[in-house]
Write the structure tokens for this entry.
Amino acid sequence: MARRFDLRSDTVTRPTAAMREAMRATEVDDDAYGDDAAVGSLERRVAALLGHDAGLWLPTGTMANQLAVALHCPRGSTVACSPGAHVRIHEDASAAALSGVQLMSIGDRTGFDADELDALLDEESCGWPPLRLVWLENTLGEAGGAIWPLHDPRRAAHGLQAIADRAHGRGKPLHLDGARLWNAHVATGIEMHVFGALADTVSVSLSKGLGAPAGSVLCGSDDRIATARRLKHAFGGAMRQAPAMLAAAGHYALDHHIARLRDDHRRARALADAIADLPHWQVTPPQTNLVLARVQPPLTRAEPLCAALREAGVACYPNIAREVRLAVHLGLDDADIAEVATIIRATLGDDPTRFTS
Ligand SMILES: *Cc1c(COP(=O)(O)O)cnc(C)c1O
């Protein structure tokens, strides 16, 4: 098989030699007792970046999201989110399974707007279950890392600020799933704390574009994070001494891997440009680091294309059944992207009928 390029996700990055050295050199203590210095300083650092009182290091973004659900929502209540939200489609229905909470989707893959939220909230007075949390995601993963804008000049009610104002005006807290908020920050130049100020709790990932082996941080008020710390134990997330080394990687990532996300964004645009004219698909111009290509008739499924690409050395998966996703990350340089484009062009060729099965 040709040299393997892994574009399945921006989580596939390996720690760089310098990141590994930072992990090796760090002191190690017990995170379950709250003793570890590197974890504590990372939690305070990310909280400060997001403009929140406190942070909590967690092994995964999924756990951060599930703690947010559990923090805000009693059993039998609901959360408003967009249909493509990670918490709705990629967390194995765990809001229902772990916390007894139902997710109500509004809007589309580009998010929802304040008027759609209002309409849903109006139904509460007609006996619908109580809505306890409004869920934002930025960037929008299922929409190929599209940025949910703070202010939307074309549709004012769709801006995050308008939604946050409306939700708070109606007494509803918000959670911002910011697994890829770093990408939105770098692409827009808007500071992290401006996004952070929108929501009552915010989670960010250190293991996607930033390239740490694992780790997310959930931020919020001192009270909420104290409760979340107990829930972390309850959900089995207190990993003793391992978080120390992962927090050292997180510190390294914050020092060295934020500004470089603009390289990923530039390479994603270059990759999209290089494959946009193939007859099999419609390529969405990427706003950040994820390239989506939606198959066109007679093709109806992305998986046969992905299977051929994997065989040829470009690992990728469908985003949704009709869409190929190519994730650009710090493990791919300009030469790699050029070679990926060459492999894709050679593999898919100009006869789409081979992929109709
Ligand atoms: C990846 C992702 C998560 C979950 O992160 P894991 O660390 O893989 O559990 C949550 N939300 C969004 C938007 C993501 O992209």
